Sequence to fold (256 residues):
Amino acid sequence: MENILEISGICKSYGSLSVLKNLFFSVGQGEIFAIIGPNGAGKTTLFKAMTGESLANAGRIVYAGEDVTSKQAAYRVAKGMARTFQVARVFRDFTVLENIVVTIESRRRTAGETPGGFFSIRPSEEILVEANALIDEIGLANVREKSASLLSHGDKKRLEFLVALALRPKILMLDEPTAGMSPTDRAKIARLIKDVQKKGGITIVMTEHDMDIVFGLADRVMVLNYGELIAVGTVAEIRANAAVADVYLGKEMYSA
Fold:
């Protein structure tokens, strides 16, 4: 499997606090790669370094064959990297449809395409067709014209997921995609992630605290603790790893 993301010796610190400590790992094209670990392990900081939200202090990040270590987030997004956040970030005053329309327009302008009409006047018919098709596919048709500020927590998370998909990414970075959700909503998001990966072949990197979600979706799992890499492997290998049981999973999940 060809690697789409290669992390070599990444370090990140804030003043005297070392958060990421010399991390080495890779993510294969088309796989679902999960990053787990206790609170404070460095998962979100690693996400910020990988996506360019906060540049690493040392090391190298190669994405789709290009060294992007010093590139800002906007550059990485333009190259096909998209992410979601623990707390959903959407245009709260826009409807669901408007959120997707402006995302598609932005993607097309960034790619040098002419999107036709503009959201501030009237979106082109082509963009409206694409936006509505995405909304229908993800299951948000019943709230299409609803303001994002009025959506339930679960629907806000699904909308953010949809905004990321509207960018047509090569790699989708999901930071706690089921955080704060009910069991029903968590199951819906898990199905969405699996369906998107299967249909589009998108590479997915995710952090997640729900081990049922992780073990049900991931091809491989990486475990962090206090910024250090403890283990990388298949679900079976991680379940059988005594060091992982000690720092995170607990004895009840060890070799379960």
Summary: Residues 105 and 253 are 46 Å apart (CA to CA). The domain at 3-89+169-253 is CATH 3.40.50.300 (Rossmann fold). Residues 251-256 have pLDDT under 50 and may be disordered.
